[in-house]
Amino acid sequence: MSWYSVRVIYKSTIDGVETSDSLKEESVRVFSASTDDEARTKRETVARSGEHSYKNEKGEIVQWLVDTIDDAQDLCEENLSDGTEVYSRLFR
Predict the structure, then answer these.
(1) 91: number of CA atoms within 13 Å, CB side?
(2) How far apart are CA 76 and CA 85, in angstroms?
(3) Which residues of the chain have pLDDT under 70?
């Protein structure tokens, strides 16, 4: 069993409406899987588990929905401990 991470972007809507200034959240989630194929399938479930809704102080329904799901990244670790890197990206 290996540990994987997935980067998820959630978007907020108010009463079902997304605007140009709607909040977004970047989240890195950690999960275990036995194979890369299982990890690709499981990343969707893990990402969707972060979706939720609530009423704000105005009584409007605020929803946080998945906007983007990145590929699952194998952490190459069997055990997680303090300081374990769970997400890394090389870029220019």
Answers:
(1) 2
(2) 10
(3) none
* pLDDT given at position 35: 92
Q: What is the pLDDT of residue 29?
A: 95
- Give the pairing type, strands 52-55 and 2-14: unpaired
Q: Return the structure tokens found at 53.
A: 């809704």
Phi-psi label, residue 59: left if phi above 0, alpha if psi -120 to 50, beta otherwise? left
Mapping DSSP to helix (H, G, I), strand (E, B) and coil, where does residue 84 land?
coil
What angle (nearest 5°) sits at the alpha carbon of residue 7, between those of residues 23 and 46?
100
Give the pLDDT score at 85: 86
pTM: 0.85
The domain segmentation of the chain, as residue ranges, is 2-71
The number of angstroms, rounded, from the C-alpha of 91 to the middle of its chain's C-alpha atoms is: 20
